[in-house]
Prior knowledge:
The complex is a heterodimer of chains A (163) and B (57). Chain A is mostly helical and 163 residues long. Chain A has helices at residues 10-21, 27-51, 60-85, 94-119, 128-152. Chain A is globular, with a radius of gyration of 19 Å. Chain B is mainly alpha-helical. Chain B is elongated. Chain B starts with a helix and ends in a 6-residue tail after the last helix. At the A-B interface, helix 1, helix 2, helix 3, helix 4 and helix 5 of A face helix 1 and helix 3 of B.
Amino acid sequence: MSLITSGADAAPLASTRAKEAYPMFSRQTIAADLLSGVAWGWLSLVTNSVTGAFVFEGGFIHDLAAFTVAGGVNGFVAGGLLSLAGARLPFKSNALKAALTSTALWLVLRAGAMMLSNIDPERYHAVNGQSIQGFFLAILLGLVIAAVRKATDAKDGLPDAAR
Amino acid sequence: MERMLERDVMLKAFAGALAVAGLAFTLCVIVYGMDSVAPGVHDAFHDFRHVIGMPCH
């Protein structure tokens, strides 16, 4: 098949090819990921209140602000990784792709934390209950990202078959 | 025309990847409580760090 095209067909075809080769970061997707992260941050706050895995030390307003900011950052990074790697993941389901990406991000961060824990055990002290909660919250983040992207019709990094 | 479009898409993808890398570093600062990078970040995000299961004191 010839790659050379001309006329009115050339621009859309080139744009499609380029988008397939290089994942896009549209404003719509970035907004969806940030929104997912913020919602996930609040869900984490509620989940921990229910499970009691960690007794909050900060005040409610302080924690609400901290979970909003940190959740937004986490959502942006997990969503960005999904945009970059989503088309290459071996699943058809968007939710599975997003859950795998966010869980992989959490596992990498946790592995780094374990290294720090080995270096300085008193400063970095792991608690199993909180780690299990964190693992499930990471899966939840992926599911929230997939749900919000579906609701807002943001599809970056995801092939047609998986939309 | 095709090359120009491809370059435009590539630049947008590069900028996006750069933003993801930058915020990934910010996430590391938050998650590990790197006070040496951002003073006060350890205390500000202390509860968040515990809730998502990251080791802390």
